[in-house]
From TrEMBL:
CDD domains: ASS. It comes from Mastigocoleus testarum BC008. The lineage of its organism: Bacteria, Bacillati, Cyanobacteriota, Cyanophyceae, Nostocales. The keyword Amino-acid biosynthesis applies. InterPro entries: Arginosuc_syn_C, Arginosuc_syn_N, Arginosuc_synth, Arginosuc_synth_CS, Arginosuc_synth_type_1_subfam, AS_cat/multimer_dom_body, Rossmann-like_a/b/a_fold. This is Argininosuccinate synthase.
């Protein structure tokens, strides 16, 4: 089934993406497979992954270091939007997909490939995110998804790979399916598929158990400029270093764990466990700073935009006209989101205990109940009459 001559394959080094290489060549008549692994700060040793692709039959094996772009162009945009899918998940995995798609498209264009392939199954969200993002960036490229079509069980997939010299995993080191990058980890499968079962401590890696956290609180100050995190405890940090520092400091106190029933894009519910220490506290702090620096109407209107924005990311529509339009709105709102938020980290809790900004809209003279009070109390009576007039008329008519 000759669908394409030269293919760029999104490659992780796992069973499915490794088997995709001989499968594409032998079953679908692809002449050349180039693999691309994205370095998103997942911590894996990428050189063995690169070599495994070549041993599995790839003509070239590429590594794309996209960590800085991942933070500056994706994570920071999500923070400005306070993007939490279903008010819980800070989208650490979902944010990586449009960036990987961009790297795949750039590689395909550079190497003259006519198709892009991935190892996603037909059950998850990532197939949609990849397919839609690739189509948005270059609609002339074909998209191949062998694992969505080959109909093999895991055992059959391993056996197929062995026929072409791909070694089977000695043992499945973990019953869980884990995706990790600089922004966090997602953990699913195994006993976690029963939503009534408490996640065992072994599933966590970035966050400590409450029993193992420090017995003294730690204070943390995060400074933002135009809505973007800029420094921690007064020290300016490079974007990657800022995320890494916060992951370590916040995770040490057991903060950043999420256990939720999630509505997947394909219509099923899944039980998901996430760890995302830095993103959890950055969005919490950013949202609080907005309450100090944005007007009431902008703050309240933006909440609806944030819900839509998180759905856009989750649903794979990063490259879309609506996303671009909302970006313009959000960027405008961030012009004065400058200041510092002070958090107290203790036993699984990040508590905001202070905030300050040179462009704060909080007026002590108006807020105080002391002798310095500058609010005109006499003005309230006329305001209340006008404000309540529609209600008064309705009540009279209704009676």
């Amino acid at each position: 089934m000759g669908r394409a001559k030269k293919v760029v394959l999104a490659y992780s080094g796992g069973v499915d993406t490794s088997v995709c290489i001989p499968y594409l060549k032998n079953e679908w008549g692809v002449e050349e497979v180039i693999t691309l692994a994205a370095d998103l700060g997942q911590g894996d040793e990428l050189e063995p992954i690169r070599e495994k692709a070549l041993k599995s039959g790839a003509s070239e094996s590429l590594i794309a270091d996209v960590k800085e772009s991942f933070v500056k162009d994706y994570a920071f945009g999500a923070i400005k939007a306070n993007a939490l899918y279903e008010n819980s998940y800070p989208l650490a995995t979902a944010l990586a997909r449009p960036l990987i798609a961009q790297a795949l498209v750039e590689a395909a264009e550079k190497h003259g490939a006519d198709a892009i392939a991935h190892g996603c199954t037909g059950k998850g969200n990532d197939q949609v995110r990849f397919d839609v993002a690739i189509a948005a960036l270059n609609p002339s490229l074909k998209i191949l998804a062998p694992a969505r079509e080959w109909g093999m069980s895991r055992e059959e997939t391993i056996a197929y790979g062995e026929k072409f010299g791909i070694p089977s995993p000695v043992k499945k080191s973990s019953p869980y399916s884990i995706d990790k990058n600089l922004l966090g980890r997602s953990i699913e499968a195994g006993i976690l598929e029963d939503p009534a079962v408490e996640p065992p401590e072994e599933v966590y890696d970035m966050t400590k158990a409450i029993a193992d956290t420090p017995d003294e609180a730690e204070y943390l100050e995060i400074t933002f400029r135009r809505g973007i995190p800029h420094s921690v405890n007064g020290e300016v940090k490079h974007p990657i270093q800022l995320i890494e520092t916060l992951n370590q400091v916040v995770g040490k106190h057991g903060i950043g764990r999420i256990d939720m029933i999630e509505n997947r894009l394909v219509g099923i519910k899944s039980r998901e466990i996430y760890e995302s220490p830095a993103m959890v506290v950055l969005i919490q702090a950013h949202r609080d700073l907005e309450s100090l620096t944005l007007t009431k109407d902008v703050t309240q209107y933006k909440r609806g935009i944030e819900e839509t924005y998180s759905q856009i990311i989750y649903n794979g529509l990063w490259y879309s006209p609506l996303k671009a339009a909302l970006d313009a709105f959000i960027d405008k709102t961030q012009e004065n989101v400058n200041g510092t938020i002070k958090l107290k980290l203790f036993k699984g809790n990040a508590i905001i205990v202070g905030r300050k900004s040179d462009v704060s809209l909080y007026s002590p003279d108006l807020a105080t109940y002391g002798s310095e009070d500058k609010f005109d109390h006499k003005a309230a009576e006329g305001f209340i009459y006008v404000w309540g007039l529609p209600t008064r008329i309705w009540s009279q008519q209704d009676r």
